[in-house]
Amino acid sequence: MRFKADSNRVRAVRDEKIFGHFIEHFHRQIYGGVYDPGNSLSDKDGLREDVLEAMRNIHVPILRWPGGCFVSSYNWKKGVGENRVPVFDKAWRVEEPNTFGTDEYIALCRKIGCEPYICTNAGTANAEEMSDWVEYCNLSDEGEWARLRALNGHPSAYRVRYWSIGNENYGHWEIGAKTAEEWGPLVRESAKMMKHVDPSIELSAAALTDVDWNVSLLKYAGKYLDWISIHEYWDHLAETNACSPYDKVMEYTEDVGHSIRKIRGLLEAFGLEKNIRIAFDEWNVRGWYHPNVHTIRQGLTKEEYLYPRDRNDDNSLYTMADAVFSACFLNELLRNADIVGMAAFAPIVNTRGCIFTYDKGIVLRSTYHVFDLYTNRLGEEVLDAWYPDPDPAIDAVATAFSGKKRWAVAAVNKDSSSMRKIAVDLDVVGDVKMAWISGSSPDSFNDIGRNDVKIMEKGYGRFSKGMEFSLPAHSVCIIEIAER
Ligand code: AHR
Questions:
Q1: Which CATH number covers residue 447?
Q2: Residues 346 and 388 reside in one and the same domain
Q3: Minimum CA distance residue for ligand 1 atom 1
Q4: Number of compact structural domains in the chain
Q5: Which of 124, 139, 189, 376 is the 20 to 30 A CA-CA neighbour of 415?
Q6: Ligand 1 atom at shortest distance from the alpha carbon of 167
Q7: Which atom of ligand 1 is the closest one to the Cα of 173?
Q8: Alpha-carbon dihedral sign for residues 262, 265, 269, 273
Q9: Residue pLDDT, tens place only, 137-165
Q10: Nearest atom within ligand 1 for CA of residue 26
Q11: CATH number at residue 366
């Protein structure tokens, strides 16, 4: 297949925040995941050094926290200071020890050099509790909450720039769910108080592609928002852990950008497409497995609603299907870089995440290597590109590094069994190499002591316009051209 890109036509400069991640107080993401004070691999603050190192390597630009469904009954005030008491987390139906709260989260972000992105409780909390959180984080010394932060040993304001109002508040599963009519006014009033505390913050609010929801949100609160938050999991696995096989996952890639298209249309209808960008702040091909939790059915036992979540941590479930899907999705974000400015892979650690922790180390799942390729090897400028003779198995994006004689093409081969060829029609010169992940089969995965999915690299000498590359079956490849 021929892939033509114009090195002189930059479609958009992507925001690095599209390579962001999410972490929630769910199962072993925080406790026993990134935060594990008793573990010999943890630093003095209880953070796992090996996890931090892995996060730094993929340049996590932004980390959304603390939920997810968890946040909709979370009281942040119970998670700061000396005397913290455990509470019962009514979303996930477990005890929340409250030992990891705002200060620990900010410490984590600082250590990996990423932007914090706090999602507030718009389920059981109100505008005052949300804006108190902004005071705690962003005011230097005025008022009760900034003074409390200083008293807790943090005299300098945290300057958290990115905030979101609520998480999936449209959903029947969410604690304190709202109707479309309630949502717009609640967001407006919360936004008003939060931005009165700190006018420099950027604000998002929970949304989905539903027209009524967005009409209420944008009509009442559009002028207070900088972002609109949407989520998507394609393989719905909350009640069953039967992950779809490779070919089914490839079907999901066929219209991977449908939500972006719909939200773009709605923003345009409101004339807000230049003011509000999309924060795709939870995404993963695999939905999380937590059967029987969002229900009030009587008589359920922990064997039925709690223990099954351990099965999210089976590394054999995260194969090249996950990697190829994730690369196709990131390609779609790059193609929509003018309107999507932020995204969060959900989650980063454990559950369906790209980093798995165990007592003595970590496993880098297939999706981790996709982030490694995309954050370390692609340029920030997305070039205009097209396929004169398309091959449905190939999904490609061309990028350039601004101010440098360096270009990189991300090319995915979705075909489960055959190698495919791509001729790169790009008018540039330089040395060329290809880095890729493939694994020996579409079902390849990594686990403790097993490293089947890894980055490979091969040099091809000098690049010439139209040069052909072989993309291995079920692979994610980056073709890199650079003039020395
Ligand atoms: O299944 C996990 C949940 O998925 C997250 O908490 C929520 O935001 C989404 O519905």
A1: 2.60.40.1180
A2: no
A3: 288
A4: 2
A5: 376
A6: 8
A7: 10
A8: positive
A9: 999 999 999 999 999 999 999 999 999 99
A10: 6
A11: 3.20.20.80
Does the C-beta of 24 come closer than 6 Å to ligand 1?
yes
Rounded Cα distance between 229 and 282, Å, is 9
- For the question of whether the overall pTM of this predicted structure is more than 0.70, the answer is yes
Q: Are residues 332 and 435 in the same domain?
A: no
Q: Whose CA is nearest to atom 2 of ligand 1?
A: 288
Alpha helices for 243-365 (secondary structure H) = 246-252, 258-269, 302-305, 320-335
Q: Which domain holds residue 91?
A: 15-377
What residues contact residue 27 under an 8 Å CB cut-off, 6+ apart?
92, 309, 310, 312, 313, 350, 351
Q: Does 265 lie in the same domain as 237?
A: yes
Q: Tens digits of per-residue pLDDT, 248-283?
A: 999 999 999 999 999 999 999 999 999 999 999 999
Binding site membership of 229 for ligand 1 (Cβ less than 6 Å): no
Average pLDDT of 423-449?
97
282 CB under 6 A from ligand 1?
A: yes
The reply to whether ligand 1 has any atom less than 6 angstroms from the CB of 123 is no
> Ligand 1: distance of its center to the CA of 68 in Å?
5
Spatial distance between the Cα atoms of 479 and 481, rounded to a whole number of angstroms: 7
Q: pLDDT band for position 464 (50/70/90)? A: very high
Q: Measured in angstroms, how far is the CA atom of residue 301 from the centroid of ligand 1? A: 21
For residue 168 and ligand 1, the question of a CB distance below 6 A is answered with yes
Q: How confident is the model at residue 484 (pLDDT cuts 50, 70, 90)?
A: confident
Residues 317 and 412 grouped into a single domain: no
Question: Could you tell me if 228 and 311 lie in one domain?
Answer: yes
Q: What is the mean pLDDT of the chain?
A: 98
Rounded to the nearest angstrom, the distance between the alpha carbon of 352 and the centre of ligand 1 is 11
Residues 339 and 406 grouped into a single domain: no
d(CA 63, CA 71): 15
Q: 132 pLDDT exceeds 90?
A: yes
Strands (E), 325-474: 340-345, 355-358, 361-364, 381-386, 394-400, 406-413, 420-426, 431-437, 446-447, 450-451, 456-462, 467-471
pLDDT at 407: 98
Best of 172, 233, 295, 352 to mutate for ligand 1, by most ligand atoms within 8 A of CB?
Answer: 233
